[in-house]
Hints:
The complex is a heterodimer. Chain A is mainly α. Chain A contains seven helices and no strands. In chain A, helix 1 (2-45) runs antiparallel to helix 2 (48-67) and helix 3 (75-93) runs antiparallel to helix 5 (139-149). Chain A starts with a helix and ends in a 6-residue tail after the last helix. In chain B, a hairpin with a 2-residue loop joins strand 8 and strand 9 (234-242). In chain B, helix 1 (3-13) packs across helix 2 (21-33), helix 1 (3-13) runs parallel beside helix 3 and helix 2 crosses helix 3 (35-52). The radius of gyration of chain B is 25 Å and the shape is globular. The termini of chain B are far apart. The interface between A and B is large, with 104 and 108 residues.
Amino acid sequence: MQPEAAPLEAVDTAALHRITQADAEVAEAWAAHHGEIYAFLLRTTRDPEAAEDLLQEAFLRLTREARAKRMPDNARAWLYRVAANLATSRGRHLAAAVRGLARIGRPQPGLPTDNLPEAGFLHREGRDDLVQVLAELDPPARAALLLSSEGFSGAEIAAAIGRTEGATRTLLCRTRLRVRARLESPEAAR
Amino acid sequence: MNAHDRILQLAAIAIDFPLPAADRARLEHHLAGCPACAGTAVALRRDAEGFANLRPVLLPERRAAEILDTVLHQHATRRPMRLLLAVALLGLVLVGGLAAGAGLLLRTEPEDLPTIVPAPSPGASAIVVGPDASRLPTASPSLTVSGAGVGVTWEPVALPDSGVRDPGGGSVDGVIAGGPGAIAWGSAYGLPPRIWTTADGRTWTSSTLEAPPDPDPDVLNPGTITGIVPGGPGYVALGWYDMTGNGRRVVAWTSVDGRAWALVPHDAAFDHAMAVDVVAWRGKLLAYGQEEAGSIEGMGTPIMWTSSDGMTWTRDDLQVPDGLRFGQPVVTTADALWAIGLPAADNLPELGWSSTRYLTSTDGRTWSVSALPRYPGLLYPTDGGLLTLVHGVRDSGAGQPTPAVERPASGTYRTPDRASWEQLSVGPAGEAYDLVQVGATLVAVGAEVSLAPCDTPSCYVPATPAAWRSTDGGRTWQQALGSATGGGVRAVAALPDGTVVGVGHGYTKDTVSTPAAWVSSPAAP
């Protein structure tokens, strides 16, 4: 009926306007950050499908925030925090999309690196072992290292992986020293 | 630990955290006079730079476009006024519920029964269309699907103590038939693992499991339940905890009734390990996990534990084929156990489901590679044989410097000989995460996902709870649950009277995932 058309249109228009503006903000964030967030998720989960799923989930959440007029001031940091939490929570919650792909076991020594994607870009002797060492870490340690490599502070890393600053300090310290020890070990020299 | 070790700790900490003035002075003074420590400190910085300079990995452009489209391409359809207001509050079909655990009851009239449309191309998944050219569910008066049977109608139910704290959210991760009717387990960010039980699928009670005496206080979610099985005095739950100091420990609990649980006294067999799956098979409890050992925290030797009573466990090594690492979950059939073997060479991004193998064992300890081709779906034993449900077919690898991974078309598959698969159907339409057989009916649960731009009469709602049923062994499927609110049904179990319960997660109005449950009662005779 005609009298009802106006209220419907008013609600519709306002909502659509808000969505359009928010979508533009999300699209901008996507253009700027989806690549690095995907890379972070892929290196943290070591599962291409899981990385895609979590990337989508992270930006879906950003979209919800944007459409609710709660666009984060620092979208990049916000996305990393959500992505890190999704990735490190994944194992605990046995995310259905990645069930059956949990990694159990120790990688064999002497991992051939020639066919690694990074092989052609590794310009320092022994750097290919970083990939191997990264694979040997559990998700929180891996996520913490990768977040640090993206320039996040210790406090930001702690918030992203759901630990106190003290625990994160311990985690990163221990992880870095073990990485160094691993790289200096005879196995790493192969 | 000597002075050099302490200095190197400071050097490592300084990479990410500011040091107090006294510690910085001590560090600089020591490095100035100790070439060995100075060299290591430089190497630590170089390692950090190395991680920052790893070659970027690329998301294929086509896939990136699909994901962005999924994220953005949601809009309202013409709806009655009262529903439009509800839709506007929902943010126009975005994943974000109206309230914790609240979903829209979806029932369809016979003429509204969704139609399963076969996949239009090998790279797409089956789609669902509605009679009004939109698949967006309606909150208008409930309509009942005609026909009796299991899993026909569903409704969300309230779970007690399902509140969560941002940002981790929570979920219910698994459910089994048992206890008063069903026993479910899960967690919420910052809270201990939780158990929920129900006698009828509608009313649930909750309890927490006693934590071991020294969980790591710095980890907000130190404990996880990985599975519950019948055994011991009634039921046995297995999980793991982050312990104060270092490492993880497997933890076990037992219960007579599934409601009240007792912590199994500490067993050294559980130290420095985490269990990821537990099954009851041939009168024994078999738990599978990994050892935390060596200088690098994380991946360890695959191991298992066995118990006859849930109280005393024996730790043992697993025998898995060379070049493979043991994966989860473990599935049992009458004559064998099944698991997933992952390649030891962990080359990403080449690693994917096609690099994995099904492993099988007749004793739980010694595993061999099965001739059955590995498909990207879990195994479900049914009266009709072993099934797998393939979903979410995507073209992966395009644009990447790796071979494209070929995937089978979405659908239901059965193995007639444990060496090959035959496709029974293209459904269920969506991502199925679990399946249960109740009588002659198969009930699958999971989520519907946004698959294509909403520029056709058919629209898609991303990641919303879904359930399907099949009365012909998986050859045809009918969707029985759909929802406008986000989330997914992760696991399903059937009560003795045929009531089916689904558990998983939903979303609060603040878009935090929250434990959620649904129930489907058998149709009245």
